[in-house]
Fold these 2 entries.
Entry 1:
Amino acid sequence: MMTIEQNLVDRFGPLIPLAGLATLLDRSPEAVRMYLRSNSELAQKINTSKLKVGRRLYFRTMEVARFLNAESV
């Protein structure tokens, strides 16, 4: 049985691009950008996994999986 972490790593690798995070959250990339500026607890946690590479925004896959798994419990 695959865990959320294994599934996301297989799908995205070690870093999830913003568009990938938007797909996971079933939102548009712009809606995700706006959500990440909010004060919600999940947005703050996801922001801790944020990594900028040039102008691109990525999120550490293992951390995002942990946050999403904790939210679903």
Entry 2:
Amino acid sequence: MTSFKHLKISILFTVFGLLVSQASFAGETKEGEKFDPSVMINHHIMDAHSWEIYHGLTLPLPVILYSEEKGLDIFSSANFYDADHNVVPYNGYVMEHEHISLESGAHVYDISITKNVFFLFINALIMILIFLAVARGYKKNAKRAPRGIQSFFEPIIIYVRDEIVKPNIGAKYERYLPYLLTLFFFIWFGNLLGLLPAAANLTGNIAVTLVLSVFSLIITLASGRKTYWLHILDPLGNSMPWVAKIPLYLILWPIELIGIITKPFSLMVRLFANITAGHIIILSIISLTFITQSLVVGLASTAFATVMNMLELFVALLQAYVFTLLTSMYFGQAVEEHH
């Protein structure tokens, strides 16, 4: 029953996505232009200073800029568009492909609330509301079976704790559990939000995955015990005198340094690449309808896009699991006691 419900939801998402794409295609054909799938795909996966909910319905977001020439400047992104939605200069600023600079060419620090930042706040708000409700349910149903939203999330929390965090970190797992639970649900919810029509590609943004990876790296290095650092700085131990080890360490130390860096790098790229690739595949399949303008191809692409949406629901959970699992393993290596 639950799987059938998820199937219906996925179909609705796909059909609505087709309608959004069709509206964009219709707007382009009025100007006598051919449908360009690359423009549509880049528009959906890239960040923006406004949130286009539907063709012709756009929510402007705050633009926050700082430059030595003009100081701090805050205004709505709607000022960059005219009545025909063409990009125009505003107050000495120009925007080209979502990159803002001064007309003089001077550099501008852009700390705007972009579409990805806006959805990051939405993701955080959803997490706060859900887990406050779970906490209330836990207090209310103490020593009783969980009910409502608590009954859905409590088994997932216990699974993350008992099957991911505890086996990989060991006895000191409780110190890292809040961060790892937050990491798991932030990535999972962000992945699911990205599957909604007109939503932001939050976890497919490499800046977001970079920050998550850097957090994991900082915690790993800050948690490193003597055994962890000795393994990096003196991997050969007492097997030979220092005079003989120095030439080998000139080779081993760069390798160890690369190993430290590649762990968060792999976390960053894996999440970014998998989520972005999934979005590109779905949008490419939908684009076939408007490239061929064929009813048969349209029906087939809708069916394939629905299957891909179902697969992406699984990938959304899988990527959160993998990121949390690998981070737990890195924490476990840092706090491991010498045997």
